[in-house]
Amino acid sequence: MRTVVAVIVVVAILVSALWLLRHRPTAPASPVAGPTSGRPAQTRRAPEALGAFPADFPRAEPRQIVFDGCPPQGDAGDPDLNRLKNRIDEPDSTVAVPLDSILALRWPRAAERRDRAAWSAAVRRDVARHEGLPVSVTGYFVRGRTEGPESPNCHGADARHRDWHIWMTATPDTSRLRSVVVETTPRVRARHPGWTIAAVQRLARQHRQARVTGWLLLDPEHPDQVGKTRGTIWEVHPITAIEVLTRGRWVPLDQASTRER
Question: How do residues 74-92 score in pLDDT, each as one tens digit?
Answer without folding.
Answer: 999 999 999 999 999 999 9
